[in-house]
Design brief:
mainly alpha; 208 residues; 3-stranded antiparallel beta sheet; 3 strands
């Protein structure tokens, strides 16, 4: 079970079995306490193979996805209507209201940050006017403060002009303290949208 989500995790199961197999091999070959390692059953009876995660991009796909998202954001009203009715890209409307999901994916591509690190980003951590990051040193230009989900450390990420356009678009649609607000729950950030990402990736043009 994942320590972060509480859900079953194949990678953690594999790791636990490797540790257990090593201990039992010691008991079998060195101490002679047992005649066979019960963990060997996983080699023959249980498939430990995990499916490749479809919400990840290969390095060669990053530029294609970036252009694809940009094209969707710049689509005219007729094209947006076709996208909504034909593909139903995500539960978040790709149209007049917001471009929440697309802006999130675009910022992921521009920063390389994990989705949860952007989903939990609040407006009081975004400095579009180049404020100081801390008392020790001034940060020139705009930036936003992010807390790394695994290391639990924080740092400032410079905001490029393209990233600034994403933040200003989100600012116009602001409905809570979060940059990527939920369209369902008040005062909450939007939920994980891996399904929408998988659909976007499936529809992503193939570059020849």
């Amino acid at each position: 079970v994942s320590l972060q989500t509480g859900k079953p995790a194949i990678a953690q199961l594999k790791k636990a079995i490797r540790y257990l197999r090593a201990e039992l091999n010691y008991a079998k070959h060195v101490k002679k306490y047992i005649s066979r390692n019960p963990c060997d059953v996983f080699n023959t009876q249980v498939s430990m193979a995990a499916r490749r995660r479809t919400y990840y991009l290969r390095p060669s796909e990053t530029r294609i996805m970036y252009k694809w998202v940009q094209d969707l954001l710049q689509a005219d009203e007729q094209q947006k209507a076709e996208l909504r009715s034909t593909y139903r890209l995500t539960k978040y409307e790709v149209g007049k209201a917001t471009h929440t999901c697309l802006d999130l994916i675009l910022l992921e591509l521009l920063t390389g940050l994990r989705q949860i690190e952007l989903l939990t980003l609040k407006w009081n951590e975004v400095y579009l006017d180049g404020e100081d990051y801390n008392e020790q040193g001034a940060v020139t230009g705009s930036f936003f403060q992010v807390i790394l989900s695994k290391q639990q450390t924080d740092f400032g990420v410079p905001i490029t002009p393209l990233m600034a356009s994403v933040f200003r678009r989100r600012l116009k649609a602001r409905s809570s303290e979060y940059v990527f607000s939920s369209s369902v729950l008040p005062d909450a950030h939007m939920g994980d949208d891996r399904v929408g990402f998988r659909i976007l990736k499936k529809l992503m043009p193939i570059e020849t």
